[in-house]
Structures are given as C-alpha cells and as structure tokens.
Write a structure and sequence with these properties.
By secondary structure, the protein is an all-alpha fold. It folds into 2 domains: 2-124, Serine Threonine Protein Phosphatase 5, Tetratricopeptide repeat; 186-335, LemA-like domain (de novo design (two linked rop proteins), Up-down Bundle). The protein is 78% helix and 0% strand. The chain contains 11 helices and no strands.
Length: 343
C-alpha cells in the first residue's frame, strides 16, 4: 500500500510539473529525485522505468496489429511513468492520429499534434515525428475541406427548403396571373365585338327611319320613339375593363327598348305595300336583321368569355390575386315594361 501511495504521489508531482507554464523536459536525474522525494526508493524508481519500457513495447505491439484503443492505453501508461521516452510519445501520437483518421475526428488530430510537440521538446527534428506531423496536417486539411463542403451543401439544402417552395409558389402565381389577364383581355375583346355590332345598328337605324318616314309621315310618334331609343342606346358606352352588373343591365335595357321600338317600326312598315317594293327599305331591313343576329352571337361569345374568366378567378390560387368576377350580359325581364326582341 505504501508503494501505491508513493507511486500516486510521484505521478501527481509529474502532472504538476507538466501543467506548469514554464514546463521544460526533466532530466533523468530530476525524475529520479522527484521519485525519491515522494517516498520511492531508487530500486522502485528503476522498476518504474522498466515498467514504462514494457508498456511502450505493448503499445507498439498493439499498434502493429491496429489495436488502437489498447495501444493508446499502453502508450499513456508508458508516458505517465517515464515522460522522457521519445518513442512512447511518438507511438501515442501515431495511435491517436490513426484513430482520428478512422473517425475523421479533429479532436484526436489535435491531441496527436500535442504529443508530436512533446517529442520535439525531447528530441528536436525527430524524423519520424516530423513525417507524422505532416500527415496529420494533410489529413486535417482534407477533413476541413469535407466539412466545408458538407456545410455548404447543408446551407444550400436549407436555402432550397425555404426558397424553392417560395419560388414555385411565385411562379404558379405569375402563370395564374398571366392566364387570368389573358382571359380578361378575351372578355374585353368580346365586349368590343358587341359594341361594334351595336354601333353598326345605330348607324343603320336613322337611314331606315328616313326611308319609312317618306311613306308614313303620319306616324311621327313611332319614328320619334325609334330615333330617341337609338340615340340613348348609342350614348351609353361602357369600359370593358370596369364592367359591373348595373352598367350591363342598363346597357341591355336600352338595347331591348331599341329593339322593341324597331320592331314596332318594321311592323308598321309591313302594312305598307309601297315600302315592301322599295329596294332601299328591303336592303336596310335585311342588314338590320343580320345585325340583330350578330348581336345575339356576340352577346353569347361575350358571356362565354366571362364564364371562362370567372371560373379561373374563383379557383385557387387565383382567388388570392386582386381579380374580381365580371358580370354577364343579361337583363332582368321584370325591369322591362314591354316585350323584348332577343339580341
């Protein structure tokens, strides 16, 4: 027990020496004196040196067989008992390096470099240790490059997780926005066709009234009604990009009133044989009838364009965009006080 106590005191004293800021390698005589001062005999001191030698031999034996854990344990025992053996510190550094290489562990590399430095304090420019130190530095650079690459890859993955969905969502919204804009332009184009046909009818009606007037001057009220209805209808111009239900109903109402008054005029003219044989009247009547049919077709095309537009606006993700549904070209028949002629 006394020997164990003295041995612990010796090891503790060595650790205190090694932990000092002004540490420098101890000579064998200094080590021996520490052993004697802590209660060990000279014979026991020599036995410690021999035990350190045996531990070193075991370390290299394990190292040759790549038994790194046992090699490290053996070399640590050797260096703690006799810290003046260059070979023991070199073996410990090499074992730590090989283990660090297997695990790609930079902490073990740093420990190996520390023991290389310890070798150089005992034997500067130790050839094998210089080579080992160089290999450790190279391996550190390789692992640093791998870690940097992994870090960059990880950063890109993290960015991708965040930005790819955002980018796809924006792309989706852009495509949807462009699609709805196209549909809106189709609605505007269809409405333009409606107005064009209506305008053609506005232009022909005064001509028709003029021809009929020459034969039925006594029916001034009907003629006046047709001209007034035509004037009111022609004055109502709508912005295709800002259509609302109230405007379209007002437009449809005026068109229906015009069609009704025109129907009365044609009914009156039908009773006059003179007009039925007048080529100019028959030509105008056919043109206006054709325009009535075209208005019906263009109104149907407009409502189809509105339907396609509204269907897209109501769906996700279009519903998130600043678009609103557009009204159809229709009129509440209850708002009319007279029969209407379909457009």
């Amino acid at each position: 027990m006394a020997e164990d106590r003295y041995l612990q005191a010796y090891l503790k004293k060595l650790m205190e020496k090694e932990g000092g800021l002004d540490y420098s390698p101890l000579t064998d005589n200094e080590l021996k004196q520490i052993a004697l001062d802590t209660g060990l005999s000279e014979t026991e001191w020599l036995a410690l040196v021999q035990d350190a030698k045996h531990a070193e031999e075991r370390g290299f034996h394990y190292l040759d067989r790549h038994n790194l854990e046992d090699a490290i344990t053996a070399f640590k025992e050797a260096t703690s008992l006799y810290p003046n053996n260059t070979a023991s510190f070199y073996g410990l550094a090499k074992a730590l390096f090989l283990k660090g290489q297997e695990q790609e562990n930079e902490v073990l590399f740093e420990q190996a470099l520390t023991h290389c430095d310890r070798v150089f304090t005992l034997q500067p420019n130790h050839k094998a240790t210089l080579d080992l130190q160089s290999n450790i530095r190279k391996q550190q650079n390789i692992i640093d490059s791998k870690l940097l690459s992994k870090s960059k890859t990880s950063q890109w993955k993290k960015k991708a997780i965040i930005y790819v969905p955002i980018g796809l969502s924006l792309l989706w919204l852009i495509i949807t926005y462009n699609s709805i804009t196209t549909e809106s332009e189709n609605v505007a184009s269809a409405w333009s066709q409606v107005e064009n046909v209506c305008q053609s009818r506005y232009d022909k009606i005064p001509q028709l009234v003029k021809v009929v007037k020459s034969a039925v001057a006594h029916e001034e009220s009907i003629l006046k009604e047709v001209l007034e209805a035509n004037h009111k209808a022609s004055q109502l111009s709508l912005d295709a990009d800002n259509l609302n239900q109230e405007q379209l109903e007002s437009f449809a109402l005026q068109q229906n009133k015009l069609s009704h008054s025109l129907q009365q005029l044609i009914f009156l003219a039908g009773k006059l044989p003179k007009l039925q044989s007048l080529e100019s009247y028959l030509s105008l009547q056919d043109e206006i009838a054709g325009m009535e049919n075209r208005i019906t077709v263009e109104r149907r095309n407009f409502n189809l364009a509105v339907k396609q537009y509204n269907q897209k606006v109501k769906r996700f993700p279009a519903m998130l965009l600043p678009f609103s549904v557009k009204p159809y070209y229709a009129v509440d028949q209850h708002k009319l006080n007279q029969p209407t002629l379909d457009l």
